[in-house]
Amino acid sequence: MDRSPWWHGAAVYHVYVRSFQDADGDGHGDLRGLIGRLDYLRWLGVDALWLSPTMPSPNRDWGYDVSDYRGVHPELGTLDDLDLLVSRARENGMRVLLDLVPNHTSSEHPWFVAARSAPDSPYRDYYVWAPPKSDGSPPNNWLDDTGEPAWTWDEKSGEYYLHNFLPEQPDLNWWNPAVHAEFDAIMDFWFDRGIAGFRIDVANGLYKDARLRDNPRHDGAYIYGTEVQGRYGLQHVHNFNQPEVHDVYRHWRRRAESRPEPPLLLGETWVARVDELAPYFGDGDELQLGFNFPFIFAPFEAPALSRVVAESLASFPQGTCPIWAGSNHDLPRLATRWAGGDQRRTRLAHTLMATLPGTYALYYGDELGMSDSDIPAALHRDPLTAGGKNGQWPRDNARAPMRWDRTPGAGFTTGTPWLPLPDDETVNVADQRADRTSTLALVRALLHLRREVFAGTVAEYREAEVTESRWIYTCGPLTVAASFSDEPQRLDLGGEPLLSSATVREDLPETGSSWVLRPWEAVVLGSA
Predict the structure, then answer these.
(1) 23, 267, 308, 354: which could form a disulfide with 290 (CB 3.0–4.6 Å)?
(2) DSSP assignment, residue 368?
């Protein structure tokens, strides 16, 4: 009996629920809308859906400020709707992953409301509190994700509380065993309902330095979306990546493995280097998957990308399954950040990620080549980044609603969309489904090829050639030749041409022949 984990060789589709499909006309995507699009996702060939936060929330960070870990936000649906989604997805060969936020809660969560009510509350120690310095200033120099002090004064108790994100997102105190017990029960609640796993938000967070020491300075230049350390002039030495977090993941992994079908633990492992990512897999006993931000932040150049791939595969524990992604809800989309709006480069990026070993993660709309929107500041909805505070990039630009067709509501809604629709109405599902050479056709072909040759495996990767202008490698039975040049390149490679990033299955060279690789094209070959 094959006991390979289902995510080996799989494709995970990241659904930003509010922007995917609105079923009730209120302008917000919802679970019923997603259920109505499962046929599209089955046709596309995805194996699992990772849902952006669905739990009740005041939406100061659009669901990443949870006020109830056992419910569904009313704007998105009900628990019955989520149960139906899980059931219908299974019928269509897909699993459902939820976003779990263990680093912090909403300030409106009953735990924090009680903790703030009195210093002797039993929930007080669920959060990180500290007295001021002698001059009344915050306990240390930590800054939150907006660049402001990570401490907010609580007048009633005369102490500060910690928030690595917004003041409305107080950090939990993972030194308290009661917090561990709460999350064990929360995870069991969802696993018992058929949820196949969690994407763990801020997986490199949770624990903070017990002594609350100052973070060291980092005075190097910081460019959003290219590196992790150095933001606002500090290194995240004491408020992230603490060694004790690995005990949490070993514990969660043991509990996951005790179930008949072990759930997936997928970490948002936001670290700068591969050697910082590798420890999150432990000795094969911690996270099963961890997002590779060194790959996401690498420049779109053959030497840079191939180096991250080689370093990752060499440093991860034996048997680890990598996961490759180019976009998510927090960053500029790959079609903008890597490709600069050039669809040749967008298609090349998808071909590379889909033919690397492990798991391939798609952000909704990426299969269409969807670029960032340029949403006017007056229409920004994201409190964390609205207005570009302290130089932040507005995340709303990567969260615009999906265009399904060219109708006035783009097939997304009959009402007023919560964010403006993308400007380019030609980037839509209906038009691209009718075009055998579209970006959607390419991604679908790649997903079905992956399922055919990679399902249930972490294929062996071998680097054949890397130069400034091209990257050639084998992965399992496939050979991939990728151009990173504006000039055509002649290639002499054996094998049967299966796909071209430029033309999908049209105009492929003959087996065994010498051919010219177009600028920014990748060709996938099988065994001759």
Answers:
(1) 267
(2) G
Instruction: Name the one residue in this structure whose structure tokens are 């919560």.
Output: 418
Tens digit of pLDDT for each residue in 133-192?
999 999 999 999 999 999 999 999 999 999 999 999 999 999 999 999 999 999 999 999
Q: Is the pLDDT of residue 125 over 70?
A: yes
CA distance 273 to 259: 33
- Does residue 300 sit in helix, strand or coil? coil
How far is the CA of 81 from the CAs of 32, 68, 75, 84, 85, in angstroms?
7, 17, 12, 5, 6
CA–CA separation, 52 and 348 (whole Å): 26
The pLDDT confidence band at residue 2, using thresholds 50, 70 and 90, is low
Q: Which among 201, 276, 286, 367 is annotated as catalytic?
A: 201
What is the spatial distance between Cα 105 and Cα 110, in angstroms, rounded to a whole number? 10
Is 168 designated active site? no
Pairing, β 470-475 against β 461-466: antiparallel
- Catalytic option among 65, 75, 81, 268: 268
Mean pLDDT of the chain: 95
Integer angstrom CA distances of residue 379 from 212, 396, 404: 38, 9, 22
User: E-strand spans in 330-477?
Assistant: 359-363, 461-466, 470-475
**pTM of this structure:** 0.97
Beta-carbon count within 10 A of 88 CB: 16
**Is the Cβ–Cβ distance between 366 and 333 less than 8 Å?**
yes
**Residue 45 to residue 447: CA distance in whole angstroms:** 6
Share of the chain above pLDDT 70, in %: 97
- As given in the structure block, the two tokens for residue 229 are 């350390």
Given the structure tokens 């130069």, which residue do they identify? 467
Which two three-digit tokens encode residue 140?
A: 């240390």
Asked about 268 being catalytic, the answer comes back as: yes
Q: Rounded distance, CA 257 to CA 197, Å? A: 12
Sheet holding 151-154, edge to edge: 129-130, 159-162, 151-154
Q: Most distant CA pair in the chain: distance in Å?
A: 78
| Neighbour count for residue 395 (Cβ, 10 Å) | 21
Rounded-to-integer distance, Cα 227 and Cα 298, Å: 9
d(Cα 372, Cα 381) in Å, to the nearest integer?
15
Q: What CA–CA distance (Å, rounded) separates 259 from 72? A: 24
Condensed to tens digits (0 to 9), the pLDDT of residues 54-89 reads 999 999 999 999 999 999 999 999 999 999 999 999
Q: What's the rounded Cα separation, in Å, for the pair 363 and 359?
A: 13
E strands, 250-324, in order: 264-267, 289-290, 323-324
Distance CA 449, CA 189 (A): 36
* CA atoms of 288 and 193, how far apart (whole Å): 21
